[in-house]
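Quick review question:
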């Protein structure tokens, strides 16, 4: 194995996927370093009711299909065939349908344990990918043709391209000399799985409330994943409710469109701290995944945006002799700028836009929802952009 290929620090979903994509696009060797053990065994066939999940857009599914991972992923995923978007207390509803786009599905929701297992299994099947886990990089220093990374065991490795994929508080990003802006917006995300009384038929629901957006996403086995974001004091109240109270509150807020909810699993919360790296490319270095940007979870765009970043980076550098060349990395960064700006702006503005109560604005907003539902052209354009297909 050539030890001088790209070095990815961070073996989460972004880092693991990037390693596979780099190999897919011709990179002779890749090293992946992760501080935690990576899953070597398949999770149980019977999923945990409380398992965390990820919504993958149609564009992300195409990327996984290139790697031969789509079929096994769909074995334990729920397809999203239809998305309902509405506003509490107002008329107006828009629907996005897979058949409008001539797609088998708009996306799919998969448990993180299964997606992680598929990625890690593919890593271990490729002899040109060196996986160092559990291990870590304790320091990195710039040299004339790349970086020298020092591992926890004292060993060193030269790399022509050091890639930060180690999360929003990335140390690797610091070693690359890249700063990041972070904004705590004072809201938390509450997540849980719920059981439904009847099959969801692949329908997903995005409901804009006065206190923040709420989504129900399809999961296998008549389950749905709940994601709600709101002010911390209100999240405190939701966390303190018993299961019956929580289900009643959900029914009141979601309206009559979703299937009746019969049970709710363990509730988790995490603070919404938005991160944006001030640059994503420097000589011999790149920043990806949550180290590059973390977004509001509205519309589930965060990981899907990262998938598009990773696919473009792998295509840009995978087959080059000098993957850390600044000109190449800068072209990648520039090519991704418009998509990142659109998604970042939409994820920040949509929740605020739907919270405005001024009557004239609220009326025009509902007309906009009705127009999206009645006019297939604008609805298709919006949906295809959100799915990463244009």
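Suggested answer, residue by residue:
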């Amino acid at each position: 194995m050539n030890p001088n290929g790209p070095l990815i620090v961070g073996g989460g979903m972004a880092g693991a996927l990037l390693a596979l994509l780099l190999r897919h696009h011709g990179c002779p060797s890749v090293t992946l370093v992760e501080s935690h053990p990576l899953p070597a065994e398949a999770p149980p066939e019977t999923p945990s009711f409380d398992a965390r999940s990820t919504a993958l857009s149609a564009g992300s599914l195409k990327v996984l299909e290139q790697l031969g991972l789509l079929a096994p992923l769909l074995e334990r995923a729920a397809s999203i065939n239809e998305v309902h978007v509405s506003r509490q207390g107002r008329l107006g509803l828009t629907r996005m349908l897979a058949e409008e786009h001539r797609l088998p599905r708009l996306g799919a929701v998969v448990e993180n344990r299964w997606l992680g297992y598929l990625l890690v299994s593919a890593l271990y099947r490729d002899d040109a990918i060196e996986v160092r886990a559990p291990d870590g990089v304790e320091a990195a220093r710039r040299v004339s043709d790349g970086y020298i990374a020092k591992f926890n065991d004292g060993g060193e490795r030269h790399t022509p391209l050091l890639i930060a994929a180690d999360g929003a508080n990335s140390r690797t990003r610091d070693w690359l000399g890249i700063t990041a802006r972070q904004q705590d917006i004072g809201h938390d995300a509450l997540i849980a799985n719920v059981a439904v009384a009847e099959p969801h038929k692949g329908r997903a629901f995005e409901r804009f409330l006065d206190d923040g957006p709420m989504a129900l996403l399809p999961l296998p086995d008549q389950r749905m994943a709940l994601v709600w974001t709101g002010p911390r004091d209100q999240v405190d109240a939701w966390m303190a409710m018993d299961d019956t109270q929580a289900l009643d509150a959900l029914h009141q807020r979601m309206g009559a469109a979703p299937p009746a909810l019969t049970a709710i699993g363990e509730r988790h919360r995490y603070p919404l701290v938005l991160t944006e790296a001030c640059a994503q490319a420097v000589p011999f270095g790149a920043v990806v995944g949550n180290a590059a940007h973390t977004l509001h979870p509205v519309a589930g765009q965060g990981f899907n945006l990262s998938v598009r970043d990773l696919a473009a980076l792998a295509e840009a550098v995978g087959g080059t002799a000098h993957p850390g060349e600044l000109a190449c990395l800068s072209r990648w960064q520039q090519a991704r700028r418009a998509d990142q700006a659109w998604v970042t702006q939409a994820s920040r503005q949509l929740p605020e836009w739907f919270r405005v109560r001024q009557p004239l604005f609220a009326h025009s907003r509902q007309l906009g929802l009705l127009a999206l539902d009645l006019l297939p052209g604008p609805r298709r354009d919006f949906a295809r952009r959100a799915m990463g297909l244009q």
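Why it works: The longest strand covers residues 180-196. Confidence is low (pLDDT under 50) at residues 353-375.
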